Amino acid sequence: MDDPTPFSDAEKIRLKRLAKLRQQEESQPPSSSAPSASSSASASRPAQPLAPKPVLQEAVPASTGSRVTKVESKRLVVIASLVLFPRDPVPLYVIKSIAPKQPTTPAVTPAPTPTPKPAAPAKSFEDWQNEALSRILQVTLNPDAVSKGGVRHIYLITLAVELECETSADTPRPFRITADIFDKTLIARLSIDPNNPGDEYAEFAAELRVPLFEYMLSCWRRVQEIRKGMWTNEPGRISAADRCAGQDQGIARLVRRVGVADAGHVSASAAVSIICGGELKTSTGQDVPLGSEQLVPRLLVDTDTAEGLPDEFFKEMVARFKDEDDALVQIFGPALTGLSGRIRGETILGDYWPPVRLPSLPNWDPAFSTPRTIELMSLLGPFFRLSVFPDDQPSVAENYFANSEGRNKADIDSAITSLRGTVRTIQNNLFGILNNIVRASPTGKDGVLSYLASVARKNEKRAQMQVDRQTVATDGFMGNLAAVLLNFCNPFMDASKIDRIDPDYLRTPQSRIDVSKDTKINATQEESDAYYKEGAAQPDRNPTISYSPETDPHFITESFFLALTFLHYGPIRSLVNYNDFLRSYNDCKNQYQRMKDEQPRWANVVTTGGNERDDTEADEALDAALQDPEFLSHMMRFYNLVMTWLVRLVDPKGGHPSQAVGLPLPNEIPKLFAMLPEWIIEDIVEFFIFVGKFGYESRVMRMNSKDELVTFAVTFLRSSKYIKNPYLKAKLVEIFFYFTYPLGKGIPGELDVTLNSHALALDHLVPAIMAFYVEVEQTGASSQFYDKFNIRYNISQVMKAIWAQPTHRNKLREESRNPESFTRFVNMLMSDVTYLLDESLTKLAEIHRIQSEMGDTAAWEAQTQQHRQERESYLRTLERQAQSYVALGNETVHMLQYLTAEVVEPFMSPEIVERLAAMLDYNLAQLVGPKCMELKVKNPEKYHFRPRDLLGELIDIYLHLNCPDFVIAVARDERSYKKEWFRKASGILLKYGLKDNDAIATLEKFVSDVEVAVQSGIEEEEALGDVPDDFLGMYEVPRRLWDEICGCVLFSEIYALIIVTFYRICTNLIALTLSQTDPIFFTLMKDPVKLPTSGTTVDRSTIRTHLLGDTRDPFNRAPLSMEMVVPGTSVSTIPDDEMKERIRIWKDEQRRTRRQQRLAALQDEGGDPSGIEEEEALGDVPDDFLDPIFFTLMKDPVKLPTSGTTVDRSTIRSHLLGDTRDPFNRAPLSIEMVVPGTNVSTIPDDEMKERIRIWKDEQRRTRRQQRLAALQGEGGDPMDTSA
Question: Which residues does the annotated region (Disordered) include (predicted)?
């Protein structure tokens, strides 16, 4: 009966092959000789060509005349084709169409009575082969061996009859199964219809009821058992003669001779053919699963059970059909569909995850693969390497971004979106595969984790700065694996399971990642080795076994650290390389543009933009790969978890994030944190810097929480000792810089709101970045001098962004009450302004000179080509330097300007005020002095040079610091101060409307006060005269000689090394008496102290100034702190008080000498010496009786209610005539607000006057007694009033 079902193309092809097979069988001549039952080993069946197919002839059994029907013969041919041609299985309906409708029952010949044989000392090879193959197929050609060994074997009577007809009479009986007839034997076994076996096989109905696939799988299992025995016990049972014959061929050829290997191969092939071809009905009439559906129940159980599918069988199936088109799809596709159908009826209460056996395949993780080839050799590697990276898949960039410069933005964006969607689909599909494997069983989970760890270990070199990219895995491969691991981390990214991440994992024996040799966050290599060696000695901890990865602590830990590792080796390294690529790309574009501009000069040179177009395509492809908003957001969520976890490690309470971490952290750093690899923090900062520089359009920061970042950065900036590498901490500040830098006019940075509202930032950000401003002075790197300016520039931008928040300003005022730390901060700030402005103005002056040269066209063209090129190259260098220095200088001056508006007292410390005044005077002279025209350059905005704004901020600083101490400091600046510069600055500020009249009036008043102080200083200096070398600094004599040689030069840190060198030369030429002098600031010592490290004596204020910027002895570079300084002198052990007394005596002597000179001058001129006598009679006036502005003895002291300072009434009245603000804190003030008082106590005004009167009388009395004693000593008459 014809089957009405239409055939598909594939089925038609299979039927044509079957017809061709039948045609070959019909055209084949009868065999001339029967096959020998005892063939030699060399006659084993070769793989190609296939062994001749057996021809089923009519056979008449001895007991009946029935024959094998034509239908049965046709059916056997079909089954044979299933075995011999497993690639082209026949559809099930074809098999059913040729099944016999009424089975023929042949007469059964009674089995002869078996004749017992004597036991042989050793079996012949043919006997052993027969026994082995019979055992495999569970069949026999000997009717006496049906129940041999306790296992029933089916007696193939039809095959025995066929062999009887084909073989000669001298062939041994009963027949034995050999390798030559193994295929024929298998066909005979598979030809028996289990539903209608006939009378000859009726006794074997139970054995025939087994489904064909299960039967062939059992055959394969028995093959494996015999294979194992052949290498151990079985060969020993072969006769001695056959063993000798096999010695030359070896055991391998013996295996082939036996035919067991072919038996296993044929069994597996037949089993697969049955899967593809379908299954007949069993004798019970029930349908068994058809085709690949037979694999479904076996995939749902463990491989080690009898119902499971052995791993070796699975591997052999894959190896057999891996090179054939769609073969694996035909085998496993329906099986996976069946698995899906089974799961539809399951719930989460059942065991519904099938074990997927990909990790058991030989090429899941090839052992001998290299870092580069693992993505090609591993089973899933080719899928994971699919990407859009131009270095990995250059055709993608060429096809999607060809001629990108000539296409509109919407077109490019569409291409980028399409590529990103494709990559995300690939990543999601790959995650689905691995997720199913992980959820299937502990074995599958371990296989996935082992594969990932193997890839990571092989690609450790990817983390190096310089690596041959052809020797490691591609960016796309590592990036896709990282994306899959991020998906595994999704269930615990909300930090709800953060306590399940084992911080000790990396040093445990079961750790799959080796970081023992990596640089640690805060530990030496020796400490790290001891720590990880101790961890390796711990006993293995049994991991928690669970079928739910997100609740398995061990799986959470491994996923977490593997994700960190793959992000480190993959995407993070790609982001860093992208930054380098852009730098090179922009340099090439600039160079190309310069070549185009200079092309007229190079008439014979042909330029091309081909490489530029290639780089443009690569740039677009990299944008598509690295700036995917979804992937960056995924990374940010993961790094938020990592930052939270790190803060939790250092939190002494361990309650973060449920409880806020307390700052500052304890001094003792937890080992769990200190011993982590440094690259964990480095990856975090690199990611956020990339997002800050290139990811604005991706809106990543706006889509995710920013609190974790702020908490992390503030925590480790506030307790900066926890991170050893200063550049990692600098990058934390750089992150704040990028996300607080204004995005446009009126658009604040993305972290502005968080930094101005986050509780931790409000309390600790200002002190943290101020402390770090000081810390970066010494980074330990060779480039530290220049690095600190870039870091401090970022700090200044952050300070400017948060300055509008009153809480931050209040925090600054609180910090200013800590004189030690705040003075160091102010010192660094002032030093930076000094250097940056000096370098900026110097570079601008040099640019001006070169531009002037180039402006003279005739003279410029007259120069040689080489000279012009050198000058142009030098000009470009100067322009780059000027842009950097001016920008840094502008921000530093601006920060100084708004800081001095908030606090004044810290800037008035003796260590700061005079240097600050000298710096301001020098730069004011540069801006408005005679050399100001040298700063006039073309397009000053190109260099960020705005001289008027800079001048206005400098004047603001003068006005903010307008107080007596600062006035005196400016007056003492003999090198740069000139009142003409202030007058000229006032004119410029008024002309361009930069300051109002009140500000100019205040500035003029300030200059007037400075002039008064200048005159007072001159008189004081004249009164003292030359100071002895004993009381001066060690550099005094060399400095005077230096000034004579070089003229007036601003003394600042930039010349310190020159001064020290010059001093050393001079000290070798000048008398050794100079060894008793003070070394640094050349002033009369008031509080001499000895440096214990070098033994040199300096003034206390001098060494304090030095230690603000350098914590080393300036003479021998030994470590030094202020606590180490002890009173004394380098000459002897004279106490500090004795040295002070020596200086006081010298001062009195100088005043006496000066008085005598003044008296003599007055007498010569006929003047009145009473004023001098009154001054001398009073002597030194106590500080609390002196007016703080004019430093004269107060006659009518009053207290200023706004600042609490006591001044003379006449002084404050004079001040209020020109300025209605308190001169000490700039608060509004009027004369009516002035009340009597003192800054020492609340003594009324009259009492203060009385104290002054009493002091005067006491001074006169003391002076009179001294004079009387002097007269008596000289023999004079004390009653002589003229004396």
Answer: 18-67, 103-122, 1156-1175, 1258-1283
What's this model's pTM, rounded to 2 decimal places? Answer: 0.65
- Would you state the pLDDT for residue 721? 94
From the number of C-beta atoms within 10 Å of its C-beta (0-12, 13-18, 19+), residue 364 rates as buried
294 by Cβ neighbours in 10 Å (0-12 / 13-18 / 19+) ranks as buried
Using CA of residue 162, residue 167, residue 173, residue 178, what is the dihedral sign? negative
Determine what percent of the chain is predicted with pLDDT higher than 90: 31
Distance separating alpha carbons of residues 848 and 106, to the nearest angstrom: 118
CB 372 within 8 A of CB 472: yes
Mean pLDDT for 191-218 is: 84
Q: Which of 1016, 1132, 1147 is nearest to 1084 (CA)?
A: 1147
Question: Of 453, 708, 435, which Cα lies nearest the Cα of 569?
Answer: 453
Look at residue 281 and tell me whether its pLDDT is greater than 60: no
The residue among 892, 857, 851 whose CA lies nearest residue 874 is 851
Q: What are the CB-based long-range contacts (under 8 Å, 24+) for 344-347?
A: none
Q: Would you state the pLDDT for residue 253? A: 37
Which residues are CB-neighbours of 868 under 8 A, at least 6 positions away?
A: 860
CA–CA dist 859, 377 (Å, integer) = 69
Confidence of residue 599 (pLDDT cuts 50, 70, 90): low
Query: CA distances (Å), 269 to each of 99, 188, 227, 262, 797, in order?
Result: 22, 17, 18, 10, 73
In Å, how far from its chain's centre is CA 245?
68
Query: Within 13 Å, how many C-alpha atoms sit on residue 657's CB side?
Result: 19
Contact (Cβ atoms closer than 8 angstroms) between residue 816 and residue 903: yes
Residue the block writes with tokens 């003029």: 1004
DSSP summary character for residue 1078:
B
Q: What is the pLDDT of residues 1039-1059, one digit of tens each?
A: 444 444 443 333 444 444 455
Which CA distances in Å does 816 have to 1, 764, 825, 908, 1201? Answer: 105, 14, 10, 12, 22
Q: How far apart are CA 258 and CA 226, in angstroms?
A: 11
DSSP labels for 833-844? HHHHHHHHHHHH
Q: List the beta bridge partners of residue 1236.
A: 1198
Q: Are 533 and 507 in contact (CB under 8 A)?
A: no
Amino acid identity, residue 315? K
Residue 237 CA, chain-centre distance (Å), reads: 66
165 close to 68: Cβ distance less than 8 angstroms: no
Angle between helices 629-650 and 409-440 (to 10 degrees): 50
Helix axes 759-775, 819-855, angle to 10 degrees: 70
| DSSP code string of 893-906 | HHHHHHHHHH--GG
pLDDT in tens, 452-475: 999 999 999 999 888 898 999 999
The region, left, alpha or beta by phi > 0 then psi within -120 to 50, assigned to residue 780 is left
> What is the Cα–Cα distance from 320 to 315, expressed in whole angstroms?
8
Nearest-5° Cα angle at 1222, 1216 to 1225: 160
CA distance 220 to 208: 17
Distances (CA, A) of 667 to 20, 730, 1029: 88, 21, 46
CB 1112 within 8 A of CB 1120: yes
